[in-house]
Design brief:
single chain, 242 residues, Immunoglobulin-like, 4-stranded antiparallel beta sheet, 17% helix, elongated, Ig-like_dom, Ig-like_dom_sf, transmembrane helix, Ig-like_fold, Ig-like domain-containing protein
Length: 242
């Protein structure tokens, strides 16, 4: 038995094809026959099958470069991804990688429908100074189309590990969202240490390539050899004086 009536429409077994504009119309009786209508857009989504952070190391040292990628697999429409480093959001100042551009007009329009809010690019982001502070770069790629027209999204993050992470480590957090319909956040926590270095007395002569000077052609000497050489030098000295 259907649950729909003159005032309500109950839809079941929704599919991606159910996405569209739904309209209702009200007509007055005679003699005016006035008509009013209203419409609303509806988007049906397929939530991501899974998501993960790829490329992390078990540990980082100060001065290392972090190069990781967040993946959201098989959703429709493609998920929007964002990064946080120790709770601080990395602003979307994307590195342009040829044709790999994600925020096309149709994607922006889709996000507006899902969230009910207009989309703002990096120029409108109030946290622009944060990207400079973190000195991080984002790499966002065009979604990969999978079977059944599902899409996999990827967002890369690259930055150099600074001394401010000593003791507290790194917490890399990726958030996967499809408008206001779906949201999930997951993270990776990684310790940071200071790389061990040689003492000043032992390292001043090490070249930038890590090579150390060597003495070639040296022979081994015994105590009697050294004593004989010393006596010979002393006798030669006295002979020169006489």
């Amino acid at each position: 038995r259907t649950k729909s009536n003159k005032q309500h429409v109950h839809l079941t077994n929704l599919s991606l094809e159910s996405t569209g504009t739904y309209k209702c119309e009200v007509s007055a009786e005679a003699p005016n026959f006035r008509t009013k209508s209203a419409h609303q857009d509806m988007v049906v989504v397929v939530v991501p099958e899974s998501a993960e952070i790829v490329g992390t190391r078990p540990m980082y040292f100060v001065g290392d470069t972090v190069n990781v990628t967040c993946y959201s697999y098989k959703s429709r429409p493609s998920a929007s991804l964002s990064w946080r480093i120790n709770g601080q959001e990395v602003t979307p100042e994307f590195e342009k990688l040829g044709d790999y551009l994600h925020y096309e007009k149709n994607v922006r329009n889709r996000d507006m429908i899902l969230s009910g809010n207009p989309y703002y690019g990096s120029s409108e982001n109030k946290n622009d100074k944060l990207a400079t502070k973190l000195n991080a770069k984002l790499k966002e790629y065009r979604p990969k189309v999978e079977k059944n027209n599902l899409e996999t999204s990827a967002l890369g993050l690259t930055f150099k590990v600074g001394k401010q992470y000593l003791g507290i480590g790194l917490k890399l957090e990726c958030t996967v969202a499809i408008g206001s319909v779906y949201w999930q956040s997951f993270n990776a926590e990684i310790p940071v240490e200071l790389r061990e270095q040689s003492s000043v007395s032992n390292s001043w002569w090490i070249s930038s390539s890590g090579e150390r000077p060597t003495i070639l052609g040296a022979s081994s000497y015994t105590f009697m050899n050294v004593l004989s050489i010393t006596i010979g030098v002393v006798l030669s000295y006295y002979k020169s004086l006489s």
